[in-house]
Amino acid sequence: MSTRSKPKLIRNPTDFQQQYLSVPGQSGCELSNNSRTHNFFEAVPLEKLKMLHKDKSFTTTRRNFYTLVLVTRGSIRETIGYRNYEFGANTLYFIPENQLHTIEHWSNDVKGYHCIFDADYFLLCLRNQVKLNHYPFFQPDRDPFMKITETEVGSILSLFEKMHFEYCKKKNHNDDLLVRMYLNILLIEIERLYQHKQAAGDNNVPKRQQMVAQFRKLVAQHYLQKRQVADYAALLYVTPHYLNDTVKEITGKSASEFIYEELVREAKSHLIQTENTVTQIATELNFSDQSYFCRFFKKHTGLSPQEFRKRHFH
């Protein structure tokens, strides 16, 4: 039976391995032992995860990263958000960051791929790409899965296999240009399939969850101009207190955290993907001056903008 008390926070691959695996440190490949909190990626065959999986690991969690899973054989039963799902062969399913999640059961014959990565890693994929939370399959008001054909399975499986091969082949954490490119291609291919197959599904989603999804869309549209919870509460015709409580209940984060995270992500994108000065970036993000921007960025990342850029420079 699943534990429905306070969810456990899974921050990185090390937390993931300790939570789910009987032999932590062996989830990815022989060369992998990624313990970093930011800028990480792992792609693992499901059959290998199943082999190393703890018999009992049914704690409800929130993951600080994104998850893609392809099931080619067997079945998986999991709870995502507040809904129970059973995924069979020829299924892709998705878990956005900060989503409630519980593994209930994996069949003994399960096969496919399991991929996790964080937002910072995705920023390094390509310049000017879509933001992760703009992909429809990572939005909380959309179905977190889709059935695909045998032909589509072959195409998606090939990309997972190439990612896994390149990931295990790399000699250091920065030697993964092809991994990033394959991840970007994989997400684009999945988005095309998803948009073709899926309807919005709003009628099947609880109203409070719909409101949170709408709030997050509004933040993505207006975060440069609107930075107060009250601004978004007014757009949604609710009180700031109600909005914040609902967002906290559904996601585990306050409404203001989502606003700040959107700003931080945009700042990271500028620092990694452009050569603009910190002063220019502060101006573009509507901060009153560079020093305020630097304080804000360090408060939310633990690094100054210059330190962050240097750490991610290739």
TrEMBL record:
It holds the Pfam family HTH_18. Keywords: DNA-binding, Transcription, Transcription regulation. GO terms for molecular function: DNA-binding transcription factor activity; sequence-specific DNA binding. InterPro entries: AraC-bd, Homeodomain-like_sf, HTH-like, HTH_AraC, Tscrpt_reg_AraC-type_HTH. Residues 213-311 form the HTH araC/xylS-type domain. Gene3D superfamilies: Homeodomain-like. This is AraC family transcriptional regulator. It comes from Pseudobacter ginsenosidimutans.
